UniProtKB/TrEMBL annotation:
PANTHER family: PHOSPHATASE YKRA-RELATED, PHOSPHOSERINE PHOSPHATASE
Organism of origin: Velocimicrobium porci
Single annotated GO MF: phosphatase activity
A GO-annotated cellular component: cytosol
Gene3D superfamilies noted in UniProt: 3.30.1240.10, HAD superfamily/HAD-like
Official protein name in the record: HAD family phosphatase
Length: 260
């Protein structure tokens, strides 16, 4: 078998959204595939600042973060795309004018509106659930790569989108949430870049995900795998559907393809 690179999404793929833990079976499977000479990469919408200790301690070969805006291999930063300062300020202005809620995500940290000014209870619940540590939108060092927002039924969202749609992709994360990423960057673009660097053919890449922001990565991979708990949009677009994350889905997927 040729050396494979396996790209893992985090939330809902490696990390259970029920227990908020990574199954031990997934960790042991990753270690076993690495012992056999295959490479394991995180490929996530999260920016690097929000890779928690549980992820870092596994021992991944590299990290593709922020939907392709940051790439790291063997503890070495390879690329980082930050939005220009004037564009960052414009986005904050538009969010406030349109009364929209968002977390502005950077490599070092993220930024949010002062909690009392958050418009929707749904977004407050989101902040409380994930306990995002963040600075405010008025921070002097405001600098970010992408952002995650809630539109809900806000009619001003269409105006906001029109202002930025030439520069950004708006990925529908369902239930009124959007992941907003600069055009030209995605989980797929990062996957292609690292495969070329390591001189590994795309046919020897494997991607595992569960949500709409994984679609580009899954489409580009030589082998695409969806978790059993995936968004329904993925299930007919992949080569294989494994079990839920809480039912040892990662272990079963790697075993199915004889990587362990």
């Amino acid at each position: 078998m040729n050396k494979k690179i396996v790209f893992f999404d985090i939330d809902g793929t490696l990390l259970s959204e029920t227990t908020h833990k990574i199954p031990e079976s997934a960790i042991s499977a990753i270690h076993e595939m690495q012992k056999k000479g295959h490479l394991a990469f995180i490929n996530t919408g999260r920016t690097f600042a929000f890779l928690d200790d549980a992820i870092m301690e596994i021992g991944f070969d590299g990290f593709l973060c922020g939907c392709g805006t940051y790439i790291q291999y063997q503890n070495r930063s390879l690329s980082h795309h930050k939005l220009p300062d004037d564009l960052c300020k414009k986005i904050v202005l538009l969010l406030r004018e349109c009364e929209l809620d968002a977390i502005l995500e950077g490599k070092e940290k993220s930024y949010g509106e002062i909690y009392e000014r958050v418009h929707s209870q749904i977004f407050r619940d989101f902040i409380d659930q994930y306990q995002y540590p963040y600075d405010t939108w008025d921070a002097k060092d405001l600098s970010f790569d992408k952002f995650f927002m809630y539109a809900g039924a806000n009619e001003k969202f269409q105006r906001f989108k029109r202002e930025l749609q030439d520069m950004f992709e708006f990925i529908d994360r369902e239930h009124g949430f959007y992941e907003v990423v600069p055009k030209g960057y995605s989980k797929a673009s990062a996957m292609k870049e690292i495969a070329e660097l390591l001189q590994i053919e795309l046919e020897d890449t494997i991607a595992i995900g569960d949500s709409n922001n994984d679609l580009a990565m899954l489409a580009m991979a030589g082998t695409s795998i969806a978790m059993g708990n995936s968004s329904k949009n993925l299930l007919d677009k992949v080569d294989y559907v494994t079990a839920d994350v809480d039912d040892d889905g990662i272990y079963k997927a790697l075993a199915h393809y004889k990587l362990i």
